[in-house]
Amino acid sequence: MTSLSPGSADALLFDLGRVVLDIDFSKAIACWAGHAGCEPEAIVARYVRDEAYRLHEVGKISDEDYFSSLRSSLGISISDVQFLEGWNAIFAGEMPGIAELLPRAARQMPVYAFSNTNRPHVDYFSREYADVLGHFRELYLSSSIGLRKPDAEAFDHVVAAMGVPASRIVFFDDLAENIEGARARGLTTVHVTSHHDVGVALKALGI
């Protein structure tokens, strides 16, 4: 964890998956396997976050086109509705403690979110987790801004939109590649590897 101290930040920027919202992708696999009548392991072996996945995350291809790509790569003949059911089944609730930490942080400084995500997930979590997400001043979502982490231009876009110097932003993410990308653009970073890390970092900031 980067050295943090009271007064060292003017804004906080949070990833959503496994930082604010818990994610369990095995639920999607199990749902799809159930509809397809195959073993989950068969889908796990074929599933990759490929170019179609990345294009879907930046809003360049439709949900139907992405599910068509999955139908081909996974070798299963299930409907778009069935794909969507599994796709949205990955959300496993809020991360432990985050419902107390976010409002406390938001009382002291602006809090924002920056997530690589797609339109169906945005539609789903905006509805299901409206309370906890309501603490964010703004959500920067890859499918809306057309840019995704860990690309430099994505971080530059978000920093400019926030209007806060990069060095005064503390960024929380669970993926090392995103932490490295943020650090390269001058942000202060916290690599979230357990649900305790956010609370520890906020305490170090005097929050």
From TrEMBL:
<protein>
    <submittedName>
        <fullName>Haloacid dehalogenase</fullName>
    </submittedName>
</protein>
<dbReference type="InterPro" id="IPR036412">
    <property type="entry name" value="HAD-like_sf"/>
</dbReference>
<dbReference type="InterPro" id="IPR023214">
    <property type="entry name" value="HAD_sf"/>
</dbReference>
<dbReference type="InterPro" id="IPR006439">
    <property type="entry name" value="HAD-SF_hydro_IA"/>
</dbReference>
<dbReference type="Pfam" id="PF00702">
    <property type="entry name" value="Hydrolase"/>
</dbReference>
<dbReference type="InterPro" id="IPR023198">
    <property type="entry name" value="PGP-like_dom2"/>
</dbReference>
